[in-house]
Amino acid sequence: MPPRSNWKGYLKLSLVSCPVALFSAASATEKVSFHMLNAETGNRLKQQYVDAETGDVVERDERVKGYEIAKGDYVTVTDEELNEIEIESSHTIDIQSFAARSDVDPVYFDNSYYIAPEDKVGAEAFAVIREAMRVRDVVGIGRVVLYGRERIVMLEPRGEGILATSLRYAYEVRDDKAYFDDIPRIEISKEMLDLALHIIDVKAAKFDPAAFKDAYQEAVVDLIRAKRAGRPAPAPRTAPPSNVVSLMDALRRSLGPDDGKGAKTGAKAGAKPPAAKAKAAAPAPRKAKTPMGETRVRKAG
């Protein structure tokens, strides 16, 4: 079965347009999920909307949205009225400008989506837009209405398709000065910096998402399996790190059993750590297998 699109409309660049479909690039279906139960009966619970004054349950067809303009005074809006709002970005992603990818601060990144042509007729126009961005090495900036609000989207070529990343608005991003201004400026010794640079060189490796596993999810699956089998809950897998007394000692210990023998750092840093034996290369990260336990647990439940 083909994936279900989150949005369908048109991708537009000046007078060139083509029908496209937009799909979520990420999925949460493989995560362990829980239902809320009554601890005494084991029955599932259901959520209900209750009138705050009368206590009566309000059914779906009796609910409306309300915007509070004063204490207890609301302007009500129905879903039908909201659905009737039509602006250009409701049905068209109009690329308004282009920028270097590095110009877009990652703090504005929100969610990722794949965009593909909706039919063969529009595939040529889609390819022209995609390849023009690829040749100029730029990303497109446009807007689209998703999930009841207009969002900024950054478009970039990805294989034969286009990757769209929704961006947060400026008012949604907090100013980092409130968090970083009080961090003191510290004079770092050359010896300490050389040790840190050497650790980076030793651990340098190409990023491979498959090499990482969700340890917390695996622990939850182990807990569910143990309880299902009537076994005690598994013991914690790791202990919290101890307090660092000496930063220099901690850096030396990070290098392993060879510290104290002296070595040169890797070519990238070009430094000479005073208390470390260089390793030839960082071992390639072992690829973690895709966890399947959680899927089986859901079927068994």
Give a short summary of the structure.
By secondary structure, the chain is α+β, with helices and mostly antiparallel strands. Helices cover 22% and strands 22% of the residues.
Written description of the protein model:
The chain is an alpha+beta fold. It contains seven helices and ten strands. A hairpin with a 2-residue loop joins strand 8 (139-146) and strand 9. Helix 4 packs parallel to helix 6. Mean pLDDT is 83; it is low at 259-301.
Summarize this structure as a short list of keywords or feature phrases.
7 helices; disordered C terminus; two-stranded antiparallel sheet; 8-stranded mixed sheet; 301 residues
How are the secondary structure elements laid out?
Elements: E1 7-13, E2 16-24, E3 65-70, E4 73-77, H1 79-83, E5 92-94, E6 97-99, E7 109-117, H2 123-136, E8 139-146, E9 149-158, E10 161-167, H3 177-180, H4 190-202, H5 215-228, H6 247-254, H7 293-300
Parallel strand pairs: 1-5
Antiparallel strand pairs: 1-2, 2-7, 3-4, 6-8, 7-10, 8-9, 9-10
Helix pairs in contact: 4-6
